[in-house]
């Protein structure tokens, strides 16, 4: 067995909450570090509520755990420097550095031989016209950092281009027939295990559903898993990673990577004996990876904003697993929970 008994998690949202539940099933404790409201605090062993600039709080947090992981990417470098001087961080700092910056991410992916959308660096508003001339229209301007669920993104069409106000990347549009994602895990010993690729549907830049099986040919899903494994190995990764890919006539194109458990992997809670959250805990704690083989067909649907009103009916729906995150009042675009429907 691993010597890890307590896992520190940076971030106290729904991913931290579900990681804490998974850890508890393995007899492990989780200590959450979160500057704001922490739904994970309802189920975790301990919570530290402090800003990432509080060196004393960071030090005490690190000294109370055996290993540190995270549920989101945008942790300040200064905080990571202090934490890593005390305890190991898994996944590693390189994975964070690559995923925190869209330009760095795409450059890394191209460097290991993987295809991405065409892109150009846009440091200032003055660079935008040059980038559009190189990439063309339509295209999409994305902030290099801090963008998620459609935030920090501007579509560039035929009209005047709107500047994001921050260093950005201009991406060419990709003509794709589907978006899929692979949830892959890599252990400290280099063992790799992947869950079945899921078919994603977005609304307003936010994931609405993930369906497994994805309905694509085996050659496509095999290639998707091999691409995800190449990324994990290239980063010497430990933990679970989400890899989003576009399906195109020319082959698979990597959209983005997330160095953590991923929204599109929530279906594993109903479809696998070992879900993505337990798999991540196993990896960062140095335990053997579990069997992620799918034993059921599942559709995962996010509950966003006022979708919460549907919960009474969903609780009475057969073959439906309801997960609520314990957040405050719903608002447009806020993920309040998800449901997993077993379809076969």
The oligomerization state is: single chain
Write down the secondary-structure element order: EHEEHEHHHEHEEEEEEEHEEHHEHEE
The 3D shape can be described as globular
Q: Mind summarizing the main beta sheet?
A: 9 strands, antiparallel
Proportion of residues in helical segments: 25-40%
| CATH structural architecture of the largest domain | 2-Layer Sandwich
- Count helical runs: 10
N→C terminal distance: 35 Å
Give the mean pLDDT: 95
Using the CA coordinates, give the radius of gyration: 20 Å
Give unreliable regions as ranges. none
CATH superfamily of the largest domain: ATP-grasp fold, B domain
Count of β-strands = 17
CATH topology category name of the largest domain: D-amino Acid Aminotransferase, Chain A, domain 1
Structural class by helix and strand composition = alpha+beta
Kindly give the count of domains.
Answer: 3
Fraction in beta strands: 25-35%
Organism: Paracoccus lichenicola
Keywords: ATP-binding, Ligase, Nucleotide-binding, Purine biosynthesis
Catalytic activity: 5-amino-1-(5-phospho-beta-D-ribosyl)imidazole + hydrogencarbonate + ATP = 5-carboxyamino-1-(5-phospho-D-ribosyl)imidazole + ADP + phosphate + 2 H(+)
Subunit structure: Homodimer.
């Amino acid at each position: 067995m691993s010597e890890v008994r307590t896992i520190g998690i940076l971030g106290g949202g729904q991913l931290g909450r579900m990681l804490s539940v998974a850890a508890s099933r393995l007899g492990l404790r989780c200590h959450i570090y979160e500057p704001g409201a922490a739904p994970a605090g309802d189920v975790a062993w301990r919570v530290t509520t402090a800003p990432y600039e509080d060196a004393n709080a960071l030090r005490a947090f690190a000294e109370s755990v055996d290993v540190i992981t995270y549920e989101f990417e945008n942790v300040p470098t200064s905080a990571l420097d202090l934490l890593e001087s005390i305890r190991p961080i898994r996944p590693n700092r390189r994975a964070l550095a690559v995923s925190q910056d869209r330009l760095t991410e795409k450059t890394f992916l191209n460097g290991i031989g993987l295809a991405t959308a065409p892109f150009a660096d846009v440091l200032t508003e003055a660079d935008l016209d040059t980038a559009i001339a190189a990439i063309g229209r339509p295209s999409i301007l994305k902030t290099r950092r801090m963008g998620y669920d459609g935030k920090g993104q501007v579509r560039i069409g035929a009209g005047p281009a709107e500047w994001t106000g921050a260093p950005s990347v201009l991406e060419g549009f990709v003509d794709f027939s589907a978006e899929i994602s692979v949830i892959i895990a890599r252990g400290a010993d280099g063992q790799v295990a992947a869950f079945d690729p899921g078919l994603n549907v977005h609304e307003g830049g936010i994931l609405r559903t993930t369906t497994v099986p994805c309905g694509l040919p085996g050659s496509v899903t095999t290639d998707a898993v091999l691409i995800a494994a190449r990324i994990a190995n290239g980063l010497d990764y430990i933990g679970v990673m989400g890899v989003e890919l576009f399906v195109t006539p020319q082959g698979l194109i990597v959209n983005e990577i997330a160095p953590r458990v991923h929204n599109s992997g929530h279906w594993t809670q109903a479809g696998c004996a070992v879900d993505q959250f337990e798999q991540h805990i196993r990896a960062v704690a140095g335990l053997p990876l579990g069997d992620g083989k799918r034993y059921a067909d599942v559709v995962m649907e996010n509950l966003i904003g006022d979708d919460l009103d549907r919960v009474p009916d969903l609780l009475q729906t057969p073959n439906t697993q309801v997960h609520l995150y314990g957040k405050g009042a719903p608002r447009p675009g806020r993920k309040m929970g998800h449901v997993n429907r077993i379809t076969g």
